[in-house]
Design goal:
By secondary structure, this protein is mainly beta. The protein is built from no helices and 5 strands. It has a 5-stranded antiparallel β-sheet, with no helix packed on it. The chain is elongated and about 40 Å long.
């Protein structure tokens, strides 16, 4: 999967990002870079893995908010 995404917050508070998931390796990357409202300075970089023991996708990474 290779797609843009939006984290839809309440009102006009949305974060914009991109996700790439490989269903063969059960891994991927999600990045967020800005958005609207309270998420206008939001940045995140996340490594995504799938755990077959609990059948869940796990996100591990960092995020920050910068003031515009």
């Amino acid at each position: 999967m290779d797609s843009d995404l939006v984290l839809d917050g309440p009102g006009n508070n949305n974060a914009s990002g991109h996700v790439t998931l490989n269903f063969l390796t059960l891994s991927g990357v999600v990045t967020f870079s800005g958005g609207t409202g309270q998420f206008s300075g939001f940045h995140a970089s996340v490594v995504v893995t799938y755990n077959t023991n609990d059948n869940l996708w796990h996100w591990d990474g960092t995020y920050s908010f910068s003031q515009g």
